[in-house]
Specification:
By secondary structure, the chain is an alpha/beta fold. Helix content is about 40%, strand content about 15%. An 8-stranded parallel beta sheet has the order 8-7-6-5-4-3-10-9. The chain has a two-stranded antiparallel sheet with strand order 1-2. α2 links the parallel β4 and β5. Bound molecules: 9-methylguanine.
Length: about 280
Amino acid sequence: MRLVPLPMRTLQCGPLKLDLSEPNIMGILNVTPDSFSDGGQYLNPVHAVEHALQMMADGATIIDIGGESTRPGAAFVGVEEEIRRVIPVVQALSEYEVVLSIDSSEPQLIREAVRAGAHIWNDVRGLTRPGALQTAAELAIPVIIMHMRGEPATMNDFAQYDDVSREVMQELQQRVDAALSAGIHAENIIIDPGFGFAKNTRQNLELLQELYRLDAMGYPLLSGLSRKRFIGEVLQGADAQHRAVGSVAGHLLSIQQGASIIRTHDVKAMHDAISIWRAMIQA
Ligand code: 9MG
């Protein structure tokens, strides 16, 4: 494993700027009935906004709002329903000075969300849906391009790799090349290995250990392993509510290898961990 300092980099998010030379915490806000860890808790927009404000107070600089669960076996949600869940929350949070990212693969939702005040497109499908690349290029917003194979319902069938880091890098590079060819600016691209998406426990751990190889691709790197199943498997079957410490450990290992955005449910714990880790390495 290699330790890398974060390069001096900023990400322009509409009128807001993110300093990526420091780790940024992206707080997860699922406005869904069926997400694996917090499904149903924030379907009511009032509760969703309260939770977002708490995450901001705890140290989140980005709030990632999603209206469709991407866990295997989750119910299909049409774009109209995604819009109905997500847009009121974006409108309410756009009053605050916080970067808003939208977890969706639907270009129509992203256009409406950007009109309502959202800044970043977080796409677990890596801009593969029809019209996605063109929409991202036209909107000229930052995009998170995540690695996955297949769809959430089928992805586990594709968890076969000879060298997981190399193959994830190659497949991410193909999506990055498609994005650049479509006119998306390099400074708007963030890459993400997609922990838990088409990877088994051993492959997730290998990928985590070799995240520095992805960092060498030259784009800001997001790590999202919050409360995922492989953390529970390492912890002898711990359920989602008992995976926070394991997730923080993995996220610190990610930061040490170059990740500048950490996507997490446990903002306060992550923020404390970064503070103590920073004090320790600077002592
Ligand atoms: C929506 N979502 C769930 N897991 C994720 C991950 O690891 N990365 C990103 N970008 N989004 C995710």
